[in-house]
Amino acid sequence: MNSATNIPILEARNVGKSFGKFKALQNVSTSFMPGTLTAIIGPNGAGKSTFFNVLSGAFPPSSGEILFNGKDITGMQQYEFARIGISKSFQITNVFKQLTVHENVRVAAQMEAARYNFLRSTQSYAGPIEVADQLLLRVNLEHLRNKKTGDLAHGQQRALEIAMALACNPSLLLLDEPTAGMSPEETLVMMELIRTLANERTVILVEHKMKLIMGLCKRIIVLHHGEFLAEGTPEEIQNNPEVRRVYLGQG
Amino acid sequence: MNSFFQLITQHRVLASTLFLAVFPFIMPYEALAVNILIFGLFAMGFNLLFGYMGLLSFGHAAFLGIGSYLTGISIVHYELGWGTAIIVGVIGAAVGGLIMGFLAIRTRGIYFSMVTLALGQIVYYIFYKAESLTGGENGLRGVRVDSFNIFGIPVDFLNPLIKYYIILFFVVIAMWLISRILNSPLGAVMEAIRENEKRAAACGFDVAKTKLLVFILSAAICGLAGSLRALHLSIVPIDSLNYLQSGQAVMMSILGGMGTFFGPFVGAAVMLYLEDVVTTFTKYWMAVIGLIFMFFVLFFPKGIWGTILSKLQIHQDSK
């Protein structure tokens, strides 16, 4: 009845998550259409990170379902999320610190080429090496390719984090506070990068800095106390009295 | 000097082989060289798991022991040829690794170490109690391999130098395999898991499966070391399975340089050579070695080989 384009790339149905007695997330339902850029916002403790983790496969929801292209993926392992095309960046930088910058992206890109083959040299797999070359150019880290990742500045590690998330060429990219801890200049560069990424694939990001979101996204979802509060365009969100009360009113 | 080290890290198997080919001539006697060869291999197998994937097992004596005992039992009780006996030992250790790994990788950090230690002790008691097969406390005696023919050429296995080169042949094969693993995509995933498990999983790698696979490979290599040790000693002492052997693997890896290809071998050579030298002066040789070990841990945490490589700024993984 519906054409394929009407199927959301990602859908959350009545998703809940409890940690012991604490209900971090309750009954959240929403969906994301292919090719869109959506931001999830909310005050501290709103359940943004929990929701992000559920959507990106870090842990399964306690209740409800997650659908990817209409297929139920609830309870899949983290690595399976990556294999079906859902990739993520972390709020706290997670990179391979003892490896070089290039090696970081190359490893992230080798999933399709070879997972467990141990008799061929990594140098004989051209694909991941090329992907790493291109992504380093894209995030402006090419000049640091042979540096040990642990020696990079924070902003550079954040950029590397994005390159690694892109390395498996995901159809859905989830970014958890991509500009966390960045300087204003670095933030601008990152925002521009996210804008171009959103032209190629579906992007969902969790962000704390309201102003950045307003100029970037066409759609915003607001969580509050672990529940769905509102969604809409930036203007609608800004004018929503509920949202103003719980969130915007603070600042 | 720098380019020399660059060259040997690029051709690490060839360089190691050349070095080990002349090694018995710089050692005081051949039996020590053989011992270093065997424990060097043991530490290298252990380092695959510890240095490259960051899993600290305290149960690797089990694989040294399983390899030794199964090879010994094959020869003593089933009169199999020594080649077949080695294969039995290696496969047995790999199966042991599968079972132990399957149980242990569910845990992390200190719990992983404790679970492997406990499982290693279980293996110890199984072999200790199976007296009719293993000789129990007395060890398994009579693992005799005197002479055999290779392509019609008679080989005298009792000649220590010949024995050294025959064992070296197997060690070189194992080193080649380890080097290939480290150079491969799997090697890269191993290091990725050591650096950051979360990120490795987010990149699409099945962390649990990789850990198990590497655990098995590591166990098989340590099993080979055990098999060769049975042939070398002609007996299998029960202390092959003692947890102190597991501790030795840890110390050798750290002393030589964990996460480097040849480091564990250097660690094994230094420790066993010192043990040999210091015991002639004092019965408290353990204390002397302990002090040296502490000195390196405190001032050269990268180990002997690791420090040399990093001083020369050789970035030596997966190249």
Task: Describe it.
The complex is a heterodimer of chains A (251) and B (319). Helices cover 35% and strands 24% of the residues of chain A. Chain A contains 9 helices and 10 strands. Chain A is α/β, with parallel strands linked by helices. Chain A folds into 2 domains: 7-85 and 172-181 and 202-251, 3-Layer(aba) Sandwich (Rossmann fold); 87-169, 3-Layer(aba) Sandwich (Rossmann fold). Chain A has helices at 48-56, 78-84, 101-109, 126-138, 154-166, 184-200, 210-216, 234-239, 241-246; strands at 10-19, 22-32, 37-41, 63-68, 71-72, 86-89, 172-176, 202-206, 219-224, 227-232. Chain A has a 6-stranded mixed beta sheet with strand order 6-7-8-3-9-10, with helices on both faces. Chain B is mainly alpha-helical and 319 residues long. Chain B has one domain. Chain B is built from 15 helices and 2 strands. A two-stranded antiparallel ribbon of chain B has the order 1-2. Chain B is globular and about 50 Å long. The mean pLDDT of chain B is 92. The chains are: A alpha/beta (251), B mainly alpha (319). Chains A and B meet through helix 2 and helix 3 of A and helix 8, helix 9, helix 10 and helix 11 of B.
How many independent structural domains of chain B? Answer: 1
End-to-end C-alpha gap of chain A: 46 Å
Q: Sum up the overall morphology of chain B in one term.
A: globular
pLDDT averaged residue by residue of chain A: 89
Largest sheet of chain B: 2 strands, antiparallel
Q: Greatest chain-chain interface?
A: A-B, 42 and 30 residues
Topology pattern of chain A, helix = H, strand = E: EEEHEEHEHHHEHEHEEHH
Name the helicity range of chain B.
Answer: over 70%
Q: What does the radius of gyration of chain B come to? A: 19 Å
Kindly provide the radius of gyration of chain A, computed on alpha-carbon positions and rounded to a whole number of angstroms: 19 Å
Number of domains of chain A: 2
Widest beta sheet: strand line-up of chain B: 1-2
Runs of chain A in which pLDDT lies below 50 for 5 or more consecutive residues are none
Residues in helices of chain A, as a percent range: 25-40%
Roughly how many Å apart are the termini of chain B?
19 Å
CATH architecture annotation of the largest domain in chain A? 3-Layer(aba) Sandwich
Quaternary assembly: heterodimer
